[in-house]
Design a protein that fits this description.
- The complex is a heterodimer.
- Chain A is of the alpha/beta class.
- Chain A is globular and about 70 Å long.
- In chain A, α1 runs parallel beside α2 and α3 packs parallel to α4.
- In chain A, α10 links the parallel β11 and β12.
- Chain B has one domain: Rossmann fold.
- Helices cover 39% and strands 17% of the residues of chain B.
- Chain B contains eleven helices and nine strands.
- In chain B, β7, α8 and β8 form a beta-alpha-beta unit.
- The longest helix of chain B is centred in the last third of the chain and has 19 residues.
- Classes of the chains: A alpha/beta, B alpha/beta.
- Chains A and B meet through α3, α4 and β9 of A and β2, α3 and α5 of B.
């Protein structure tokens, strides 16, 4: 399929995951990601894959843990309250050095909140979320096309580092329809290669290896000295990810910028509209859009702070979470202002403009 | 010299971490012997629980995964679905399976997952130091029921075989005792049958072991066995609850 098709983000990421070689999907229904689980329910059997509607979010992520331990590309998805429940399993998957892809179609919180788009799970996604020292690689799309492309990226990163990867989207991207172009599905040969590249660590039949009867999938190290080595190694992995995998988009970044905006996902879309209008009116504003929100592109922000820049504005659909990372990047050199919206309500380009022009 | 008894190949040579008189060692051995006899070891993946048998993943010499508290049947589901050509079992205690993992066991059983669940019931949380379990008997003193389990306040012990027997999907459900040599020989046959059904991909199979915990019951091994015979067996009836092979007329 090389032509563009009009699809909801929830369906597009599901289709892209299938094309990326995901043949196992376990999830529990929750709004506003239901189209994703429904798409998988409909399509998985057509590619000889496995779809299980789990009894709970907790069970779903633990099914992912089991399937991942067998070296398969496996995914789950949910929305904010469900992601909280999955945190137990994500911590185990991270502790056991296993790949997995988790889609969060964020909605308003805390608690049951509402079912409208929000970005209130930023801290949970980027700072750990579950117990213990671990990191989830987190990518944040801002269009339906990017949402779909990130399925492939997420599986690649998950496999490369044997680490859980979260696609941090929101109810707007999940529900909105946009034209999408998909990559070609993995061939049988490519699927076989994927299996082989996992062979040295996953649990698998031992008939091929008569002298090796015991592969372990485990996050338990009861000896503190062994656990210290294990967690230190995890830390080294996270350092490598920070070094290699930071991604961001620059929009209208130039020496003329008077203000630099920082926004991710849906908030960045709205920010771009404001930047375009201001450009037409003669005010130069640049945008740094983090694509990976962990690892966070701190250097991209500090590099964008040219001489003319008077302030940095952070726009988020929450009470102010990513702003803490932006402040680390700005490191006190400029004022950092905040525009937020909560409750599942979006700010308008006019509101962003007003914030930028505020003296 | 003729070897007449040896460690099953499906057990590693690590020394068990279990207390003297504990029946975990017996149930481990029965499962390992059955795996050997059915030649399943090369195609077996086991899931260890949280609890005293948390190190089961080190003791069984086949591929093993270590689950979070109560989640073993969910892990096993993921594993079996990912590798339908392999065979999967879980090994879980009463706190793990019948409290924090209640949803996982009921739904794995109800889906008829092609796995075997071994359930060790000694009516107490062992690893954490003797707290009340969902299977703790009425009046039984534990560190969190110091005046005896008050069934009016906290409910009666959960009978897991009976609970699972209300579902249509499970293929095989049986409760066995590890409280006498005769019982252990009978249990071995049941364990082997469950694993054979697993090998033959017949469906969900479940074996409960009525077991002891001398340490946390505050008894020596012999008294613990006698106490279990007098108190556990009247509450947890040893019997076969389900064997669809009989309905199918194949056995």
């Amino acid at each position: 399929m090389s032509e563009k098709v009009l699809m909801k983000g929830n369906e597009a990421v599901a289709e892209a995951a299938l094309r990326a070689g995901c043949r196992l999907y376990f999830a529990y229904p929750i709004t506003p990601q239901s189209e994703l689980i429904e798409y998988m329910a409909k399509m998985m059997s057509k590619v000889d894959g496995t779809f299980v509607q789990a009894e709970s979010e907790v069970a779903a992520i633990n099914m992912v843990y089991g399937a991942s331990g067998c070296g398969k590309r496996v995914m789950t998805s949910s929305s904010s309250p469900g992601i909280s429940l999955k945190m137990e399993g994500i911590s185990y998957i991270a502790g056991a050095n296993l790949p997995a892809v988790i889609v969060n179609v964020q909605r308003g919180g805390p608690g049951l909140g509402d079912i409208q788009p929000a970005q209130g799970d930023y801290f949970q996604a980027t700072k750990g979320g579950g117990h213990g020292d671990y990191k989830t690689i987190v990518v944040a799309p801002s269009t339906v096309q990017e949402f779909a492309d990130m399925a492939d990226l997420a599986f690649e990163l998950a496999d490369k580092y044997r680490n859980p990867v979260m696609i941090l989207s929101d109810g707007l991207l999940g529900q909105m329809m946009e034209p999408v172009e998909f990559k070609k599905p993995k061939t049988d040969e490519e699927m076989k290669k994927l299996d082989e590249q996992h062979f040295d660590w996953c649990i698998h039949p031992n008939e091929d290896e008569p002298n090796h009867h015991h592969h372990e999938i485990n996050s338990l190290e009861i000896d503190p000295n062994v656990l210290e080595q294990h967690v230190t190694k995890l830390g080294e992995k996270y350092d490598k990810i920070e070094k290699n995998e930071k991604r961001h988009e620059e929009y209208n970044i130039s020496d003329d910028n008077e203000v630099v905006l920082v926004a991710f996902g849906t908030a960045a879309r709205i920010a771009k509209s404001a930047i375009d209008e201001l450009k037409a009116e003669g005010t130069s504003v640049g945008l740094i859009r983090p694509i990976t929100v962990w690892p966070y592109p701190y250097e991209a922000i500090s590099k964008a702070l040219h001489e003319k820049v008077k302030k940095v504005v952070v726009c988020e659909l929450n009470l102010g979470q990513m702003i803490e990372d932006v402040k680390l990047a700005v490191n006190g050199t400029l004022p950092v202002e905040f525009l937020g919206k909560v409750g599942g309500i979006l700010f308008t380009p006019e509101e962003v403009k007003a914030k930028i022009l505020e003296k | 010299m003729e070897v007449i008894a040896k460690r099953p190949e499906s057990l590693t040579d690590l020394q068990f971490t279990y207390c003297p008189g504990c029946t975990h060692g017996i149930s481990h051995r029965l499962i390992a012997e059955a795996m050997d006899e059915l030649e399943m070891r090369n195609m077996m993946m086991g899931v260890a629980p949280v609890g005293c048998s948390v190190f089961a993943y080190k003791f069984f010499d086949c591929d093993m995964a270590e689950a979070a508290h109560g989640r073993a049947p969910a892990l096993a589901t993921g594993m079996k679905r990912a590798r339908p050509d392999m065979h999967v079992f879980t090994y879980q205690g009463d706190g793990d399976l019948a409290a924090i993992g209640t949803a996982e066991i009921i739904h794995a059983a109800n889906r008829g997952e092609h796995i075997t669940v071994f359930f060790v019931n000694n009516a107490i949380y062992g690893m954490t130091g003797g707290q009340m379990a969902p299977t703790t008997l009425p009046g039984m003193k534990t560190t969190t029921s110091p005046y005896g389990r008050d069934e009016k306040d906290i409910g009666y012990p959960i009978k897991v075989c009976e609970l699972l027997d209300s579902l249509d999907s499970p293929y095989f459900i049986e409760r066995v005792s590890l409280l006498s040599p005769q019982d252990i020989l009978k249990a071995k046959k049941v364990v082997k049958k469950a694993l054979r059904y697993n090998k033959e991909e017949r469906g969900f199979t479940f074996v409960e072991f009525v077991s002891t915990c001398p340490t946390n019951w505050g008894m020596d091994a012999k008294d613990a066995i006698n106490w279990a015979k007098e108190n556990m067996l009247p509450n947890f009836t040893v019997k076969n609850f389900r064997d669809k092979a009989k309905e199918e007329g194949g056995e």
